[in-house]
From TrEMBL:
The lineage of its organism: Bacteria, Pseudomonadati, Pseudomonadota, Gammaproteobacteria, Alteromonadales. This is Uncharacterized protein. Residues 28-43 have a biased composition (Low complexity). Residues 28-57, 204-233 are annotated as: Disordered.
Length: 233
């Protein structure tokens, strides 16, 4: 009897160990078969539940596309080319004589009312070639802008040289809140640009008369002999 018990006991223990091993393997297999998403979610969860999922990102603001010119649109191309090539003119001639012309301008050899651009500073650039009407007779000169200056008082000035002819002559124009003024030299004489009652006027300066007095002083000739006598030498 004792021998039978000794034989059966190892068999029972072996069977118990086998059953326990099989059950442990099934649990591990079930745990490893869980979806990755569940594992990732559990890994990011906070033990105390304080973390919250991130809000979805807002879509990026759409940038307004650049307005392009249709290469097949001939009218648009021509308008664009004209805008690039055109140069603003400082003033244009007109025939409105509703202002009182001062006597000194009325007595000038010639004068011309003009409409002056009020924004020369933004319209004129170095290198521009512009045309300036000077008289009612239709006299027009061509000027190339050579320099620009913004003065301390806020006035804007530009300078240029006449183009064409045997010689080049200087032109300078200054524009400020009180008006526009300029001096224009040509081979036929000098002109002045001024503002009268808000209107522009260009007039030719009268030439100096041949019999005008000298505008300089001649120092008197000193008498060296009398100077010596006065000092007793």
């Amino acid at each position: 009897m004792k021998r039978a018990v000794l034989i059966i006991l190892p068999i029972v223990l072996a069977v118990g160990f086998a059953v326990s091993y099989l059950m442990t393997g099934d649990e591990q297999a079930a745990a490893s078969s869980q979806p990755r998403s569940s594992q990732s979610q559990s890994a990011t969860d906070s033990p105390d539940g304080s973390f919250k999922p991130l809000a979805p990102l807002e879509p990026a603001t759409t940038v307004k596309p650049i307005q392009l010119i249709d290469p097949q649109d001939a009218t648009a191309l021509e308008t664009s080319a004209q805008a690039l090539d055109s140069v603003a003119q400082p003033w244009q001639a007109h025939d409105n004589y509703d202002i009182a012309i001062p006597d000194e301008i009325a007595a000038a050899p010639s004068f011309q009312l003009v409409t002056i651009s009020s924004s020369m500073e933004s319209e004129i650039s170095i290198g521009d070639v512009i045309e300036l009407p000077l008289s009612e007779a239709g006299e027009v000169i061509t000027v190339e802008v050579t320099s620009e200056t913004l003065n301390d008082n806020g006035d804007y000035s530009w300078q240029g040289q006449t183009v064409g002819g045997d010689h080049s002559y200087p032109v300078i124009v200054t524009q400020g809140p009180n008006g526009t003024y300029g001096s224009i030299a040509t081979e036929d004489g000098t002109y002045t640009l001024t503002t009268v009652d808000g209107e522009g006027v260009v007039y030719k300066n009268p030439p100096l008369p041949e019999t005008h007095d000298d505008d300089f002083l001649v120092p008197p000739i000193s008498d060296d002999n009398s100077s010596v006598d006065d000092h007793g030498h």
